[in-house]
Amino acid sequence: MNSVDPSDAARLDGTLDRANSDVVLIVDDVPDNLSVLHDALDESGYTVLIATSGEAALMRAMQALPDVILLDAMMPGMDGFEVARRLKAAPQTTHIPIIFMTGLTETEYLVAALESGGVDYVTKPIKPKEVLARMGVHLAGARERRQTRNALDAFGYATITVRAADGCLMWQTPLARDLLERYCGTQAPNTPPEVLGWLQACLQTMARGDEPAKLSLERGPKRLTFRLHQQIGDSDAGGDWLIVMREVSDTAVIEAMSLSFKLTAREAEVLYWVVKGKTNKDIGDILGSSPMTVKKHLERVFVKLGVETRTAAAGMAMSRIRQLHPQFEG
């Protein structure tokens, strides 16, 4: 198995065998502690990385993205609590489970370890079997999350993970990042307010035993839908939630209406928004026209469809759309 020091970072990049071995980063400034843990983990089949300071730990974690971190609480310079806070604040590393190693058993220190981002702790002197057992629990959850993410990513889904307790966007696929920037103007670790509000409403709905609704954000004929996929990790404080996003474009629907009813491109757009239930003022705002111009377009649409009311026009258009595009959401 691999044992790698931070000085070998350049050589290591891209060479970790994640398919056959979980990667563990041990952070401790005492060589004897590192030696005991290294040997036990290496013999158990883990790929072992080491760091001897808080600064080196941050660099190593960002470069290698280990599956779990064993973190000494008390180190000179930057202590383990600060290291954990920084790791949890960074979108790239916030998902990594941190197990604290501490000789301080007073309640205030153990609470500080958990509040700074640790999921568990072991007390010194270190007992390798106990460490392995604790790691196994947290790695199982991390492995499940990674497999789910990889599967969704492989099929081209845009997905994000949001921590319900504080609304932090913990993980996202590249496609999800682009969509959130385009539709919401936000970047990780910030979850868009409308998405966070929807998630909280979903959790309340499910607590009542009801099915959560989807969220849809419209941008012209395109819309971005959000669906709650599953809860991952611990359920404390609401847990972490995997959300699947899908962008749908109705441009083809507008083109189909134009061809079916022999409408101009602008007339087809006006009819599309009538089907969506928009008023002339709303449509004018969307298309950059005055309500009077929209009214004139709509009058020509009535003539071409042979109807006299908005309701009749919308009904005829919806019937034709459903024939050509059954997935259309009116």
Automatic annotation (TrEMBL):
Keywords: DNA-binding, Phosphoprotein, Transcription, Transcription regulation, Two-component regulatory system. The modification 4-aspartylphosphate is found at residue 72. Residues 256-321 form the HTH luxR-type domain. SUPFAM superfamilies: C-terminal effector domain of the bipartite response regulators, CheY-like. The keyword DNA-binding applies. It holds the Pfam family GerE. Residues 23-139 form the Response regulatory domain. This is Response regulator transcription factor. It comes from Rhodoferax mekongensis.
